[in-house]
Amino acid sequence: MAAENKMVSIYIMGKQYEVPYGVTIMKAMEYAGYRFIRGCGCRGGFCGACGTVYRKPDSFRLKVGLACATMVEDGMHLTQIPFYPANRASYKLEELSPSLGTLLQHYPEVTRCLGCNQCTRICPQELSVMDYIAAAQRGDIEKTAHQSFDCIMCGLCASRCPAEIVQYNVGILARRLYGRHIAPRAAHLAERVGEIKAGKFNDELSRLMQMSKEELQRRYEARDIEQ
Amino acid sequence: MGIPYFPGCTLHVKAKGLDDSTRATLAALGLELTELPEWTCCGTAFPLAQDNYMGMVASARILAKAAKEGDGRLVTVCSFCYNVLKRVNFALKNNDEARTKLNAYLEENYNGELRVLHPLELLRDDLGFDSLKTRVDRKLKGMKVACYYGCMLSRPAKEMEFGEPENPALMEEFVKAVGAEPVDFPYKTKCCGSYQVLNNYDLVAGRVKDILKAARVRDSEVIITSCPLCQFNLDWLQDRFADEDKSFSKIPVLYFTQLLGIALEISVAKLGLDNHYVDPKPLLQAG
Questions:
Q1: Does domain B3-117 have CATH number 1.20.1050.140?
Q2: Which candidate in A98, A103, B39, B146 could, as Cys together with B215 as Cys, close a disulfide (CB 3.0–4.6 Å)?
Q3: Start-end ranges of CATH 1.10.1060.10 in chain A?
Q4: CB-based burial label for A1 (10 Å; 0-12, 13-18, 19+)
């Protein structure tokens, strides 16, 4: 079949390669001879290790994708930006208060945001990065946490920021503050922990511990899976 | 759907009393505000360099998005936000290069059509001060009020169109409408020192002392402002002045919307009157 044999021409860091049509950027780079010891993780679009920027000849726009989840296209000029230097504040979460002061103490550069929106334009998760930084700037931790929730910490936002903000670290601080100090406690969780402590599941657990590998495997394969 | 409203970052935390009292008082007068769905910091300071378009991008985006709300107006109350948004709006309307550059970058087609309004203008134009007079309780009668505009409301005059740049009168008209008495206050547009408070305490303390004294010698019972930074500088320094000088007598510094709230008998909690350094609650017994 012709489609299977079709090749496309891509440029990796400026050098031209012929690679098979229909593969991901990551596979194309490996096809071209690159071997990843960094900048490659889950290969499933979740871990954020393989952020990649590219342009195509028909547009001035800088495009973005994860190398493991973006298909190659003919004429693509690309480079991977698998890691971007980013300072990360260290803190003891339980000692922090969920306030504007806490955010600014750890990441004072947040107030340098100019509103250029490049972070939002480049986010491969299509998050409203600028808006969650705006929320952080006014101490709205809950909104920062919710709007940054799907962040995979690829770092592309930080690579584009003229104010040198590391957006994803601000986001994770907000999510931690929210989870530890703001979100209501889950009553059912405390109940379940109480049941565990009281030994409700001990018998079942010890039966499992004593099972043979074959029996465990049989049960695993026959388990109910939530749809 | 109320009138599109841009609160500004400071009003979310440090100046919550300004936000709360603005929404509560205007709503009580039938001027409901609706916060813009998404907004960023306005940039705080209008860029000093004429061609610093990057410094105008945030405000230009806010304006372009607000225009899509379809009301034709955007209300904002913080003096800094009002100054920046109004000046960027002016640039988008009158400066061809600014309009072209900002629209090209933002991929918008916004040409300064919005009217950026301060609540004082809204009260004057949309409600009318005569109408306001009939809506307020009379217990402010005779209360002497110093109207402090600071730097941001009236200057530069051509862009802000807020009356005489050195001697604006809108706040005084408002004070009369709520039944109180504005004092003659020559320091009304003198800068309080603004954010110099972070690195030049003496400069700000000196200016604030002059402003407070000018209000005090005219028997003012309260100073009103619409600027979170003026409010902060004029308010928090008074404890120190009182420590340094036993004869210093404190004077409460309110947002004009809080004074309006008192006149409309809106509850203390809704007006944020508990969060001042100089306790303004004795004013509630006045009249």
A1: yes
A2: B146
A3: 93-182
A4: exposed
Answer with the residue of higher pLDDT: B1 or A78.
A78
Q: Are the Cβ atoms of B40 and A116 closer than 8 angstroms? A: no
Identify the residue whose tokens are 């001060």. Answer: B129
- State the nearest Cα–Cα gap between A121 and chain B, in angstroms: 11
Residue A3 has pLDDT above 80, yes or no: no
Closest CA to B234 of B212, B263, B256: B212
Diameter of chain A measured on Cα atoms: 66
ipTM here? 0.90
pTM: 0.90
CATH (one of 3.40.50.720, 3.20.20.70, 3.40.50.1000, 3.40.50.11810) for B128-285: 3.40.50.11810
Instruction: Using the structure block, give the residue that is written with the tokens 């203008």.
Output: B121
Q: What is the pLDDT of residues B44-82, one digit of tens each?
A: 999 999 899 999 999 999 999 999 999 999 999 999 999
Average pLDDT, whole number, for chain B? 95
Chain A residue with minimum CA distance to B105? A116
pLDDT surpassing 50 at residue A1: no
Q: Do B12 and A117 touch (CB under 8 A)?
A: no
The letter for the amino acid at B21 is: S
Q: Which long-range contacts (CB under 8 A, 24 or more apart) does A16-23 make?
A: A19/A72, A21/A72, A21/A74, A22/A71, A22/A72, A23/A71, A23/A72
Nearest CA in chain A to B40: A134
Q: How many CB pairs under 8 A join A and B?
A: 42
Name the nearest CA neighbour of A115 among B116, B82, B227, B56: B56
The answer to whether A64 touches A46, Cβ cutoff 8 Å, is no
pLDDT tens digits for range A119-168: 999 999 999 999 999 999 999 999 999 999 999 999 999 999 999 999 99
Residue B171 identity (one-letter amino acid): M
Q: Which residue, A97, A83, A98, is CA-closest to A144? A: A98
CATH number of the structural domain A93-182: 1.10.1060.10
Q: Report the alpha-carbon distance of residue A69 to residue A67 in Å, rounded.
A: 6
- Taking the CA of residue B172 and the nearest CA in chain A, the distance in Å comes to 32
**pLDDT tens digits for range B97-119:** 999 999 999 999 999 999 999 99
